[in-house]
Amino acid sequence: MNSCLISFLSKYDTFNDEERRIIETNSLIKEYAKGEFLVRSGQIATHTYLVLQGCVRSYYLNDGNEQNTAFFTEHDIITPVSYSKNLASNYFIECLEPCIISHGSKEKTEDFLSKHPRFSLLCHKINDAILAQRQTSWDHFRNLSPEEHYLELTKSNPDLLKRIPQYHLASYLGIKPQSLSRIKKRLSKQNH
Question: What does the alpha-carbon distance between residue 159 and residue 128 come to, in Å, rounded to a whole number?
Answer without folding.
Answer: 25
